Structures are given as structure tokens and as C-alpha cells.
Amino acid sequence: MGGLYEVVMDGKMIVYTDAKVEYLVFGDMVDIEKRKSVTEERVAELRKVDFAKLPFELAIKDVRGDGSRKLAVFSDPDCPFCKKLERESLKELNNVTIYTFLMPLAQLHPDAARKSRVIWCAPDRLAAWKGWILDGKLPENGKDDCENPVDKTIALGNQLGVNGTPALMFPNGKTVPGAIPHEDIEKLLAEKMAKK
Predict the structure, then answer these.
(1) What is the C-alpha separation between 196 and 194, in angstroms, rounded?
(2) What is the pLDDT of residues 84-140, one digit of tens each?
């Protein structure tokens, strides 16, 4: 749009200004004809993640079926929306490898960091994660003092612009917040496959 310039702040936030930088405009620019937020599309582009470079060794790995499709999820063990995602949206997902990065949000869930460590320190991390997130049962030994990546995964989430859980990341670079429906996850996984 003539006379208006996009300014990217902190690599993720967009504002607009005039040529002399006398005025700043905060908010979405909307293409009326297409009925789409130009700002939202641009922010999504800026937030794209290089999926292949994620440190998967710091995640809990769940291979279902042939595991051919990939999905990364940043999740807080005490987040009700994370539980909803696991119990409803991810429940029937098949032929996928799901990498769960533990990202406890201490300001919302004070005990989530401890639970994340207990889950990571369990002999079978995937069973411990599912036991907690699906059934509300932590491993009996409750050990949380092993070497764990919880601080690293929190820092990684922050670096990638994750400001809430759950956050889903797809191989095409898209990050989608929230407990989105199963159908939407399938569409996003198919979109990734189509772009190969």
C-alpha cells in the first residue's frame, strides 16, 4: 500500500509506519476484497520453523503406524487444552511420529515443571506422558532429578515464538496454536505432503 511501510520488530511482530516514521500503526491490515488479514499471513510467514532442525532428541517420541508423517507439539502437562488435544484431536491420528516438547508454563501452572521432569525421568517417557496426560497418573517413583531438557525446551519454545500451549508445528514450517480439531490436523499434514 503506497506510503505505508511494514516494520518487523523482534523478528515476529509487525507494525506499519509512514515514510518519515512520524506515525506507527498497530493492528491488522486487512485485504477487503479477499477478506484476509495481510498482517496475519505475513506474521505466519515470519514464524515459519525449520522443522528438520528441531532438536528431536529433546522430545518424547510417539511413533504410530508407519510413522511416516511428522508433527511436533509443545505441551504443558497441566494445560487443559493440551489434555484436550491429546484426548480428542491426536487420539485417532495414525501413520505419524509425534514429537512432544515439554514446555511447562510456570506462571500458569506452578507444578508443571516438576511434572515435566518426573515424566522425562521415567524409564518409559512415552508411557509416563500418556499416563499423565490421558489418565492423570504420574510414575510411581516420582523421580525428577535426572538430567533432563525441560529448561532447554522452554527456551526453545520461547525462541520459536511459542507463547501458549499446545502449539503444533508441521514439516512445512507452519505453527498452529491451540487444541485444533483432528480434521484440521489431518488437513495440515496432507498440505505438508502435497508440498514435498
Answers:
(1) 6
(2) 999 999 999 999 999 999 999 988 999 999 999 999 999 999 999 999 999 999 998
User: Cα(157)–Cα(164) distance, rounded to whole angstroms?
Assistant: 9
Per-residue pLDDT tens digits for 130-164: 999 999 999 988 889 999 999 999 999 998 989 89
Chain-centre distance of CA 168, in angstroms?
Answer: 4
**pLDDT on residue 87:** 96
Q: What is the pLDDT of residue 41?
A: 80
C-beta atoms surrounding 109 within 10 Å: 17
What three-state secondary structure class fits 116?
helix
Burial class (CB in 10 A: 0-12, 13-18, 19+), 33: exposed
Distance of alpha carbon 29 from alpha carbon 92, whole angstroms? 38
153 Cβ contact partners less than 8 Å away, ≥ 6 residues apart: 58, 59, 74, 101, 102, 103
